[in-house]
Design goal:
The protein contains 20 helices and no strands. It has 468 residues and is mainly alpha-helical.
Length: 468
Amino acid sequence: MSARSPRIVAGTAVLLAPMLLFALLRVVPSLDTSYASLSFHFWTTTSTSIAAALATVVVIVAARSIRETRLLFLALAFLSIAAIFLIHGLNTPSYVQNEYYLSLIRVSAWATIAVASTFVTLSALEMPHAVEAFVARRGLALASATAVALATYVILSLTTPGWLAWVPTGNAPLRDLSSVVLTVMLAFAIWRYGQAYSFARLPSQAAMVGTVALLLETQIAMFWNAGEFRVSWWMYHALYFAAFVVLFAGWAVEAARAGSLSAIGDALSLREALAQLDRGQDAYVVELVDAIEAKDRATLGHVRRVSSYAYAIGRRLGLSPTDLRAVALAGQMHDVGKIGVPDAILLKPGKLSEAEFTEIKRHAPRGFAIAERVAALAELAPVIRAHHERLDGSGYPDGLVGNQIPLFARIIAVADTYDAITSARPYRAAADSAAAIAELRRVSGRQLDARCVEALIASLETGGAQAA
C-alpha cells in the first residue's frame, strides 16, 4: 500500500459518512426529528450561494483563458448554483417574499443541482477535438448566454414568484428519474476527476473529487428526504455548503503551495491532456508540454529544446526510428513532475534554500509516478525518474552509477545540461555554445556519458542539433 493510500481511504470514509447518517435517518424515522427555522434556512442557502459565486470568481481568475473549456464549464456550474440557489434562499417566507411559494422554492432547489450537474459533467467529459475547438471559439458567447439565462430566471422569480406553479413538483416518477440521471452524471464526473487525481495527486484534483461526491450526496438527500424541516431535509443544505468548504480547502492548499491561484487552473486543466495521452492521442503531448512549461516561464521552450537535442544525440548514436521517437517523447516529458512543484520555488529569482532544493528534486520521482499511470508514458517512467542521475553517483533521486542509468536518461541528462547552460535564468545570463561545450567536456565521462556528449557536440557542429 502506498503512503497516500491511508489518506485516500480516510477521505473516502469521510465522504461516505453523510450517506450512512442519511440512511440511518430514513431507516429509523424517530431519529429524523423536525427543526423549523426560517432564519437558519435563509442564512444557510444564502451562504452557499455566496460561496458558489466566490468559486466562480476563483475559477475565472485561475483560468489562463475563457477558451479553456473544462474551466469554462466548471465556472458555469458554480455560477448556476450561485444564481438559482439564491432564489431558493431569498424566497424563504418573511424575507424577500411574505408568501410561501412552495413550487418556486422546490423548483429552484431541483434546478440548481440539475443545471450544476450538467455543467460539472461537461467539464469532465472527453469531447471530440472538433467539438472542443468549437466550444473554445464560442466560450465567451456560451458564458454570456448562460449568464443572461440565469439573470432572467432570477428576475422572473423575484418579480413573479408564482411563475413556476405549473411544475409538477409532487410527481414521484419524475423525482425518481431525475435522481437516477443526476446520480449517473455525477458518478461519471467523480470517476473522471478521480482519474486526474490518480495521475498527478494534486490538491485541487482531490478537492474536485470530494466536491462532486458531496454534490451527488446533496441531490440524494434533496430528493429522498422525509420532508421539509426534518433532519434528513436539512442534510442536503448542509452537504451543499460542505461541498464548497472542501473545494476551498483544496484550493487553499494548492494556492499556498504554488504561491498563485493559476496553479488551481493548471491542475484542473491537466486532467484531459493526461487522459487523452493515456488513450494514445499523441496530439495531447503538445497540451501537456504547454502545462509543464506554464509552470516556469523563465525556462519557456526548455522541454522542446531538450527533446530536439535528445533526438539529435540519439540519431548520432544510431538509435532505431522507434527509439528516436521514444527518446524525443521522454525529452518532452522529462520535467512533467514539476507540475507538482510550488510556483514560489520554481520562480524564485535567487538561490534556493536546502529545503527548497529538496522540493525541486522531488520532481523526478513525482514525474516517474505520473508516467507510470499513463499507458503512453509507462515505459519511459524510469527514464523520467533518472534524468538527473550522474555517472559518478552524485545525481538524484537514487544515486545510480554508470550503466545503472538508462541510456535514454543519459541522453536527456546531456541535452538538459546543455540547454540549462545556454538559457538565461533570473539569477544569471545565458552562456554561449562554446562555453556550454567546454563545460560538457569537463564533466564528460565523470558525470555525463562521454558518447552522448560527443554525439551532441558533433550534431551541433554539423547543424544536426537545433533548438525546437
